[in-house]
Design brief:
The chain is an alpha/beta fold. The chain has two domains: 1-179, Rossmann fold; 181-322, Orthogonal Bundle (N-(1-d-carboxylethyl)-l-norvaline Dehydrogenase, domain 2), CATH 1.10.1040.10. Helices cover 42% and strands 19% of the residues. The chain has an eight-stranded mixed β-sheet with strand order 5-2-1-6-7-8-12-13, with helices on both faces. A four-stranded mixed β-sheet has the order 4-3-10-9. It has a two-stranded antiparallel ribbon with strand order 11-14. 49% of the residues are buried.
Length: 322
């Protein structure tokens, strides 16, 4: 079994390097300065108990890979990049290989199942930072991360068992889950404050807007008849631990802003609630406002953490949606 990581950022890079450390065959698909750094000197992986440079194969495009029948392909890019990635894989001849969506949000599995028959969902619990090319920091301990994995829309098979075993051997906890989507919706609720973390820092997560976004989302999911679970949370296996000499950046959305990627994932997190609210006749003014905030952060180039919750609450009130 060879592991192909499409996207070598915080999650993809941390997983790829850890699996390579454990002796597994790994190929990464990266771009820009991250690709150059990995090809040149390897990927520096920093954890609470280690600091090591890891070498593994890395390419710029799936076209550079001769795919094998026993490959397992992990999608580890942001959702806004998923459609193009899936189309590239299809063009390169990927057919029956497992495609595992190691991503936040709900849309990735839907997109993948349009093109591939063996699609898997994963609830990702892995505190990791990627803001500097050639370096990934994982803040999880004693396990580096916890991943509930199952077929999409449901089920467990040998692929799930084998992948979870490989993750266990690389310092993570892999948990087979025959009904993975309720956990993914549970994680979605947690990720609704990512954009507030990006705008205001950690205090944004606990703000009135953050709490209102979750309350609004819970009403939407109930109206849609969607099951939600927080069983994926296993704090006894992993907690957030500081890495010496490293200041945590925050959410993946904040990291995107810091790297100047030109996009943010808010439309596939809060935007999922907006979509479901519109489909089910439930008002979603808070999550609509947060989608607009995500676009504003990107378009105006606002520095992460530079806004205040009070300022945003005033903006929300002025928007007429309160």
């Amino acid at each position: 079994m060879r592991f192909v990581f499409y996207g070598v950022g915080a999650i993809g890079g941390g997983l790829a390097a850890s699996l390579a450390q454990s002796g597994r065959e790994v190929v990464g698909i990266a771009r820009g300065a991250q690709l150059e750094a990995i090809r040149s000197t390897g990927l520096r992986l920093r954890t609470p108990d280690s600091d090591e440079v890891v070498r593994f194969a890395c390419v710029a495009s799936p076209e550079e890979i001769e795919f094998r029948s026993n490959d397992v392909i992990f999608l580890t890019m942001k959702t806004q990049d998923t459609k193009a990635a899936l189309e590239a894989l299809q063009i390169c001849g990927v057919r029956g290989q497992p495609v595992i969506c190691m991503q936040n949000g709900i849309e990735n599995e839907r997109l993948a199942l349009r093109l591939f028959e063996n699609v898997y969902g994963a609830v990702v619990m892995m505190p990791a930072d990627y803001v500097r090319p050639g370096e990934v920091v994982i803040n999880g301990a004693p396990k580096r991360g916890v991943f509930n994995i199952g077929r999409y829309p449901s089920g467990v098979d040998q692929v799930v068992t084998d992948v979870c075993r490989a993750l266990d051997g690389a310092g993570f906890a892999g948990v087979p889950d025959d009904d993975v989507m309720p956990g993914k919706y549970g994680k979605l609720l947690m990720n609704l404050t990512n954009v507030l973390d990006a705008a205001c820092g950690r205090e944004g997560r606990q703000s009135a807007l953050g709490k209102a976004a979750r309350t609004e989302a819970e009403a939407v999911l109930a109206a849609a008849g969607i099951a939600v679970s927080d069983d994926y949370r296993q704090d006894e296996l992993m907690r957030i631990v500081e890495v010496e000499g490293v200041k945590r950046t925050g959410s993946s959305s904040a990291q995107s802003l810091l790297r100047g990627t030109g996009s943010i994932e808010t439309d596939y997190l809060n935007g999922e609630i907006v979509l479901l609210g519109r489909l089910n006749g439930v008002p979603v003014p808070v999550n609509r406002f947060l989608c607009d905030l995500g676009r504003r952060l990107v378009v105006e180039g606002i520095e992460p953490g530079s806004l205040s919750p009070d300022e945003l609450e005033a903006d929300f009130a002025r928007s007429g949606r309160a």
